[in-house]
UniProtKB/TrEMBL annotation:
Keywords: Heme, Iron, Metal-binding, Monooxygenase, Oxidoreductase. This is Unspecific monooxygenase. The gene is Acey_s0704.g1675. One of its GO terms (molecular function) is heme binding. Belongs to the cytochrome P450 family. Its cofactor is heme. InterPro entries: Cyt_P450 (IPR001128), Cyt_P450_sf (IPR036396), Insect_CytP450_Detox (IPR050476). It comes from the Eukaryota. It comes from Ancylostoma ceylanicum. Pfam families: p450.
Amino acid sequence: MLTVILLLAVGLLLFLIYRRHYDHSILLNCGFPILPARHVVLENIDIFQSPNAIFTFGSIAKQYGPVFGVMQGGLPTVVTSDVDVIRDISLKYFSSFHGKMPVPIDPDPVSAESVHMFASRGARWKRMRMITSQAMSAKNMKQLFPIVEESVFSFMNFVEKLPHHKKVEAHKCALPKPHL
């Protein structure tokens, strides 16, 4: 019985080592630099969980370039700040790069109606993305810009008229007034 448990443990360890090597090879075959692992098991997951992750990735990008690979635990992850790569992923290849990594405590991203576009996955994400991409076209954004600009100027004029020495709750100022 002990030998069976030992063989299973060794087999599992060998499988995990093989899987980790395979995941690393995925990043190596992409051709961009890979951030070396900080920890043997967790690799670089601490960077992703840090509240200063965006600043850490900014300093790493200065050293490795705008696109680099990093292992997020056992998951190969590509980090980019290259606008062209982001545009290609968002517009041309969105069917291959939809959704986000699952979070165990989130509602089911496929079937839950309360899940918004950024948390959805699969066919639901594709459908929501297709609908919003039509609404967010360059033509529609150009039509919307004057309305947003006029609203901002109107709000700024309102704020400038407020007394400078008195505290003002900005949230109440931004709420729409009921029309009577």
